[in-house]
Amino acid sequence: GNSVTQMEGPVTLSEEAFLTINCTYTATGYPSLFWYVQYPGEGLQLLLKATKADDKGSNKGFEATYRKETTSFHLEKGSVQVSDSAVYFCALSVNNNDMRFGAGTRLTVKP
Amino acid sequence: DTGVSQDPRHKITKRGQNVTFRCDPISEHNRLYWYRQTLGQGPEFLTYFQNEAQLEKSRLLSNRFSAERPKGSFSTLEIQRTEQGDSAMYLCASSHVGSGANVLTFGAGSRLTVL
Fold first, then answer.
1. pLDDT tens figures, B50-99
2. How many CA atoms lie within 13 Å of A81's alpha carbon, on the beta-carbon side?
3. Distance between CA atoms of B66 and B77, rounded to whole angstroms?
4. Residues of chain A contacting residue B46, judged by C-beta atoms under 8 Å apart
5. Which residue of chain B comes nearest to A41, CA vs CA?
6. Are residues B43 and A42, on separate chains, in Cβ contact within 8 Å?
7. In which element (H, E) is residue B59 found?
8. Which of A20, A47, B1, B18 ranks highest by number of CB atoms within 10 Å?
């Protein structure tokens, strides 16, 4: 079936540190890939997306590149801020049908 | 548009009772999704609709769960004979499937506590 596996947390970083959250996927077709973020006390919201191989999604300083050869969509940010503290979810959708999410990675950024 | 609305935000019930949640999607969205999320886990897919048609239902969904979207607008999720294991956050999301990627907009969720 279609699924994503993302690195377990929690992840704790100091402000301005480099962030990587790994995500790999399994899909029977050609998925679109997403990162969603859930800030404390808020609902899930789209952070970035990529719809085909080698696409790079970016938003708010975060980036992720759709790597078909390694079936990965790792999330990166060069310099995290305290305000980036949240839970990050990798997700995929095949043929624009249902959306499947990973278990989430909690990020805490300390000043 | 005020986004995706869910009601109630929090429901406390006794085991064995029935509960119903309502979701009002973004008005121009043709897709509506239900997910369940427990603490420390990602959203678990339950079911989704395109307009009024229920296109997919998770195999994990017991027959105590039923969802409807009778006029292709709002949707209800009913849980009959609730069990303590049903305690979770129930999330609704909507999207418009056109030529681009299927981007979901989530509501704030309805938290169910079964005593």
1. 999 999 899 878 899 999 999 889 999 999 999 999 999 999 999 988 76
2. 5
3. 6
4. none
5. B108
6. no
7. none
8. A47
- Output the six-digit token pair for A1: 């079936």
Number of CB atoms found within 10 A of residue A27's CB: 18
Q: How do residues B11-55 score in pLDDT, each as one tens digit?
A: 999 999 999 999 999 998 999 999 999 988 899 999 999 999 999
Residue A42 burial (10 A CB sphere; 0-12, 13-18, 19+): exposed
Closest in B48, B56, B103 to A46, CB measured: B103
Cβ B104–A46 below 8 Å, yes or no?
yes
Q: Considering only the beta carbons, identify the residue of B42, B97, B102 that sits closest to A101.
A: B42
Name the burial class of residue B91, with classes exposed (0-12), middle (13-18) and buried (19+) by CB atoms within 10 angstroms of its CB: buried
